[in-house]
Write a structure and sequence with these properties.
The complex is a heterodimer of chains A (77) and B (123). By secondary structure, chain A is of the alpha+beta class. Chain A has three helices and three strands, in the order H-E-E-H-H-E. In chain B, strand 2 and strand 3 form a beta hairpin. In chain B, helix 2 runs parallel beside helix 4. The two termini of chain B are 18 Å apart. The chains are: A alpha+beta (77), B alpha/beta (123).
Chain lengths: 77, 123
């Protein structure tokens, strides 16, 4: 899978993101590093921040198109 | 509730630190499982490992229990801490050690053994 479909899933889930990137770590289209910064994360525990990212990517996680996912989340404060 | 689910729940609830991973600590089969294991080891944590590759049903049941889609998953005293990224991030700023000390007692390192349990054979 290319990075664009993941990028658009994240954009839909986090329309107010100040930083949003998807990197194909190996070039193979199944190991991704995603980074999301949004004010929504400011007061949220790390576990819940990651949970929201996982939820945004639930479909590609479930069907196996994402084999390995690394997540970096940030607030904006 | 299935017998397998009961055994998974038993590990989560009764082991001080449970690590559901791909492979075993002796033969890690995935980069993220390796990162989580390393972070726990560096924090001096006890580790009870479960190899989810032993049976596909383990992963299904585990994610149904935890609501967490990816592997590895780390639990401390029955509570989901997170996957590799979270555990690594918490370890980097000392938060993991504080959590372990809070939940397991300040001397948690003293009894920090590493073991692997199989869910496929009845205890």
């Amino acid at each position: 899978m290319a990075t664009e479909p993941l990028q658009s899933l994240l954009q839909q889930a986090f329309p107010d993101a100040t930083e949003l990137s998807v990197e194909d770590r190996t070039g193979g289209g199944d190991h991704f590093q995603v980074t999301v910064a949004t004010p929504r994360f400011n007061e949220l525990p790390l576990l819940e921040q990651h949970r929201l990212v996982n939820e945004a990517l639930a479909a590609p996680l479930r069907d196996g198109t994402i084999h390995e996912l690394r997540i970096k989340t940030k607030g904006t404060e | 509730m299935s017998e397998l689910r009961e055994r998974i729940q038993d590990v989560i609830e009764n082991e001080p630190v449970a690590l559901f991973m791909k492979g075993t600590p002796q033969l890690v089969m995935c980069g993220n499982s390796d990162r989580a294991l390393r972070a726990l080891r560096e924090a001096g944590s006890p580790v009870t490992a479960v190899d989810i590759l032993a049976n596909p049903a383990i992963r299904q049941e585990l994610s149904a229990i935890s609501g967490w889609p990816t592997i590895p998953q780390v639990f401390v005293k029955g509570e989901l801490v997170g996957g590799a990224d979270i555990v690594e991030e918490l370890a980097a700023d000392g938060e993991l050690e504080r959590t372990l000390a809070d939940k397991l007692g300040a001397d948690y390192r003293a009894s920090a053994a590493e073991r692997t349990v199989s869910l496929l054979t009845p205890a």
